[in-house]
Amino acid sequence: MAPQPDIESAQQTVELIFNVLEEGSKKEYLGEDISQLEHSLQTAQQARDAQADNETVLAALLHDIGQFCDRQTAMDIMAEASDLAGKTTESTSNVKVGVKGHEYIGGQYLRRLGFSEKVAQLVEAHVVAKRYLTAMDQAYYDGLSSASKASLKYQGGPFSAEQVKEFESDPLFREKVQLRLWDDKAKVVGLDLPGLESYKDIAVQHLIRSSA
Ligand SMILES: [Fe+2]
C-alpha cells in the first residue's frame, strides 16, 4: 500500500527517484552513444511535445528506472513476483516470472513509491510494446538498433497473433505503443533539452494526487 504523502514527503520521493536516475545514468546507455539520462530526457520531451498527460510524461521519463533502483529493492520485487507465481490464482495468472525484466521491476518500484497505476503500467509495458510492434511491422523491426534487436530475443521475441489481439484490447494500448515509439527515437547524440529539474513539479503534484 502506497503511503499518503504530504508535500514534503512527495518532494523527498521525487528527489530519491531523480537521484536514482541520475546516478544510474552515469553509466553509458548500453550499446548506444548517449547516456541513460539523455535517453530518458529525450523520451519525456517527446511526450511533452505531443502534449501527453502528466502521467504519460512521467512514465516516459522513468521508463528505464528499473535498471537503476538499488539491488536489494530489485531482488525483493523479483522474490515477491516468484512468490505470487507460486500461488497462482485467477487474479495473478498473468504473472509470468520467467519473462520479467527491468520494466517489471520499474513498474513495481514506482507503485511502491506511490506513483499511479497508469504510470506503473506504462513503464511495465515498454518491452511488450516492442514485441507487439515487431510482430506488426517489419520496417519497425528493421529500424531497431542492433542492441535493441539483440535484446528482443531475450524479451520473448515478436508477439504471436493471439498475443497481438490480447494487447490491442488493453485500455492503455495506444499510450503503451506510443511510449515505445518515443523510447526508440530517444537516441539522438548532442540534443540540448530541459533537465530533470523541469519535471520536479509535475512529479510532486502527481504523487500527492495519486495518493489522495
Ligand atoms: Fe528506454
Automatic annotation (TrEMBL):
Pfam families: HD (PF01966). One of its GO terms (molecular function) is dioxygenase activity. InterPro entries: HD/PDEase_dom, HD_domain, HDIG_dom, OP_Dioxygenase. It comes from the Eukaryota. Residues 37-129 form the HD domain. Coiled coil: none annotated. The keyword Lipid biosynthesis does not apply. SUPFAM superfamilies: HD-domain/PDEase-like. Keywords: Dioxygenase, Oxidoreductase. PANTHER family: HD DOMAIN-CONTAINING PROTEIN, PTHR40202. This is 2-amino-1-hydroxyethylphosphonate dioxygenase (Glycine-forming). It comes from Entomortierella parvispora.
